[in-house]
Design goal:
Largest sheet: 5 strands, antiparallel
Number of strands: 31
Strand order of the largest sheet: 3-4-7-6-5
Distance between the termini: 48 Å
Radius of gyration: 31 Å
Strand content: 35-45%
Shape: flat
Helix content: under 10%
């Protein structure tokens, strides 16, 4: 006897009865298996979680790439993702979870799918359920430890402060710190034992030790170790020398990492802390200079704050891809024989993304919404605004904007306005803003692209996504 629907090619017909293959059900084996969480892996920098399902899903009812994490995972899982986590579908089977502030999810803990939320792509399968255990990344990052501290303790110094707050590689979460004394040969003497005892139990990023721990005219090395939540560690050795000679020179520390990366279109500031042991009313003078190689002469920066304790550097002061040293020289009462110095190396990077695209939805006179994804009703007009785009060495804003649009979902719609084209070309314009009248787009998800070319002929692209729905 024939079987209904020939068992939908998902089973074997046995005297009119379908024997369904594993996972499929129904009289005609047409009911697909529910999607199952297969794996969840932390990325190397600890900021994201990569999640995969066994088959194509309905993306929990979301047609575009951006999903609501609370509509995908259960409450316990969402509570571990931090404040404001972001869930982005990269395909119907995969999504990336970007942790929010205060995330607590650790490798080895489970994530659980929300009940009655995810089915197969056709919405015919049972709902997905169950959990999967998260796993650590294959190549997890390690902290890069940076400590700000004086090398020399003078006769009048009363304490030593170690400041590790510029350490990176935390994965966006607090680091744990340990402090120890490096002892050559591994057999500490009595004085070294007292230093070790003082370091035991210290755990914060900033610690202060009494100078009396360190014998006069001796050098000791303190090892600062940082551990991130992925269990990776990094260390740095900090030498400390204490002298019984009165230190005539100011101790100078720039409150920043010794290697600083900045972007050319962003301002930044540096502060120098200087001190003189047994200071008795002397005044300090500051001079900030640029050194273009490690042996070249310092050249005073032509900035209003170059002789202040805090150097304020406006945006676009330095060219992109420049590498140089910033030095601060601190003198005591303008005495050129009493000068202390500190240096950092600066790398100047181009802007992260100079092509920016945002939406103005509804009334064109409303404020632009800085977002790359919007959900709008079909009878709403759409205005695309790329006026915030800029190139780091072009100041006159004379750009040409080439606009295009293509349909992402459903794919059978073709491009935005032409069902037979991959992408619909909207034309060139010197105007950074274009508008589409209401009801121009059919319901679906679209990608708008602005290819922006400057007067030198350099082109960059910015994308924005819009999902059009039929008003209820």
């Amino acid at each position: 006897a024939a079987c209904p629907g020939r068992c939908s090619a998902n089973g074997v017909c046995d005297n009119g009865i379908c024997r369904c293959i594993l996972g499929y059900s129904g009289l005609d084996c047409s009911i697909a298996p529910a999607p199952v969480l297969t794996n969840a892996t932390f990325d190397g920098n600890g900021l994201n979680l990569y999640v995969n399902f066994s088959i194509s899903t309905n993306r929990a009812g979301v047609s575009g790439p951006l999903g609501n994490c609370s509509g995908i995972f259960d409450a316990v899982t969402v509570s571990r993702l931090g404040s404001g986590p972001l869930c982005t579908w990269t395909s119907n089977m995969s999504l990336i979870v970007t942790f929010g502030n205060g995330a607590t999810l650790l490798p080895g803990q489970p994530i659980t799918v929300l009940a009655n939320a995810i089915r197969d792509f056709t919405n015919q399968s049972p709902f997905s359920s169950g959990s999967v255990t998260t796993v650590a990344p294959i190549n997890p990052m390690a902290p890069l430890v940076s400590v700000v501290s004086p090398y020399l303790l003078g006769a009048c110094d009363t304490s030593l402060t170690l400041d590790a707050r510029t350490t990176t590689g935390s994965g966006g979460r607090p680091l744990t710190y340990t402090y120890s004394l490096l002892v050559p040969g591994g057999r500490p003497n009595i004085l070294q034992q007292s230093i070790q005892a003082a370091l035991t139990g210290l755990s914060g990023p900033v610690v202060t030790l009494p100078a009396t721990l360190f014998p006069y005219n001796s050098q000791n090395t303190i090892v600062v170790t940082a551990t991130n939540y992925l269990g990776q560690t990094g260390s740095i050795a900090v030498p400390v020398y204490r002298t019984d000679v009165y230190n005539r020179y100011p101790t100078v520390i720039i409150q920043a990492s010794k290697v600083l990366r900045v972007r050319t279109n962003e301002p930044f500031a540096l502060t120098a802390n200087a001190s003189i042991p047994c200071r008795d009313g002397s005044t300090l003078q500051y001079a900030w200079s640029r050194v273009d190689n490690s042996t070249g002469p310092p050249l005073l920066l032509n900035l209003p704050t170059s002789t202040s304790q805090t150097l304020s550097v406006p945006a676009n002061t330095f060219s992109a891809n420049a590498v140089f040293i910033i030095e601060v020289a601190v003198s005591v009462d303008n005495d050129l024989n009493r000068i202390g110095r500190d240096r950092i190396t600066v790398y100047v990077d181009p802007p992260k993304n100079w092509a920016q695209l945002s939406f103005i939805v509804g009334n064109p006179n409303t404020t632009a919404i800085n977002s790359n994804s919007r959900l709008i009703a079909r009878r709403t007009n759409i205005t695309l605004d790329a006026s915030s785009s800029e190139y780091y060495d072009t100041n006159n804003g004379s750009y040409v904007f080439a606009w295009s649009c293509k349909s992402l979902f459903p794919r059978q719609c073709g491009s935005c306005l032409d069902p037979d084209a991959e992408a619909f070309y909207l034309g060139n314009s010197s105007n950074p803003v274009i508008s589409l009248p209401p009801s121009t787009l059919q319901p679906g998800t679209y990608q708008f692209t602005a290819a922006i070319t400057d007067k030198e002929g350099r082109t960059r692209e910015a994308n924005a996504f819009v999902t059009v729905v039929t008003p209820q």
